[in-house]
Design goal:
Family: Belongs to the type III pantothenate kinase family.
GO molecular function, one term: pantothenate kinase activity
Subunit structure: Homodimer.
Shape: globular
Bound molecules: adenosine-5'-diphosphate, ligand PAZ
Number of domains: 2
Pathway: Cofactor biosynthesis; coenzyme A biosynthesis; CoA from (R)-pantothenate: step 1/5
Distance between the termini: 14 Å
CATH class of the largest domain: Alpha Beta
Structural class: alpha/beta
Protein name: Type III pantothenate kinase
Strand content: 15-25%
Order of helices and strands: EEEHEHEEHEEEHHEHEH
Strand order of the largest sheet: 6-9-8-7-10-11
Radius of gyration: 19 Å
Amino acid sequence: MLLAFDVGNSNVKIGLLGEDGRVHDKMRISSQLQRTADEYNVFVNQFLQQNQFVWQDIEGIIISSVVPLITGELSIFLEKHVEQPYAILGPGAKTGLKINTEHPHELGADLVANAAGAYYLSQGKPCIAIAFGTATTFTVVNSRSELQGVAIAPGVETALVSLVKNTALLRQVKLEMPRSSIGRNTQEAIRAGLILGNLGTVEYIVQQQLRELRQAAGDPELDIKLYSTGFFGKFYQQHSHCLGEFEEDLLFLGLQQIWQKNI
Ligand SMILES: Nc1ncnc2c1ncn2[C@@H]1O[C@H](COP(=O)(O)OP(=O)(O)O)[C@@H](O)[C@H]1O
Ligand SMILES: CC(C)(COP(=O)(O)O)[C@@H](O)C(=O)NCCC(=O)O
């Protein structure tokens, strides 16, 4: 069993992954910067106990993090309390993909893991991993097995928080599909702008990326697989025909693949 951490800007997802990459169980805690190594120790031990595992059942630990302060505390926790080997996904790790961006060291580990998961599921075909988290990200693997690049947009809730913060009269709304694109009260007006606007943005970016990938490959029919993931992934995938399959555990699947390539 592999213990995997996906440290995002809003949540830390902790997963127990079987040899086949399947997620045995997972937990989600908020990404609070003040959490200490000892607190992570309590959380993880409780999580293992709930699943009737002991540390001897864990062959290793892998971390994808885009929050350096949390990476630091997790490293202290692992150094202090855990004997099993651990790896922090970063530059130099074998991923099965060539990172062909201009500054590979600045690429978020979550994007690399999502791309590795998508590439595994697509069985080596070009693919796009669309992750709906704090940010909405579109990570592209081209037909030369290169992680070619990414588009980063504000996540839907991040956009809402910013909208509310920068206006006097607007308040938080529940994020659900509006009844119409013509909102007839403030809440519905915000939903119309935010949810439909976000859907339009996402579909436009995907269409552009598909077009550019096909143009570069000189093949207008090039088969490109799409995978959606992240907290809002299911919601958007249900309301669009162009977001591919929803894969809740895409990032964990990528981490499993990366772990196997590096042991
Ligand atoms: N339990 C929840 N209820 C409502 N919104 C949530 C919940 N968990 C996450 N979110 C929202 O989803 C987004 C984060 O999604 P997540 O997939 O956890 O991304 P990240 O990897 O960026 O932490 C944030 O905008 C957050 O507010
Ligand atoms: C784009 C991100 C903010 C996404 O974070 P998330 O929504 O998963 O919390 C993160 O991958 C990041 O900080 N990346 C660094 C910049 C880059 O990848 O180019």
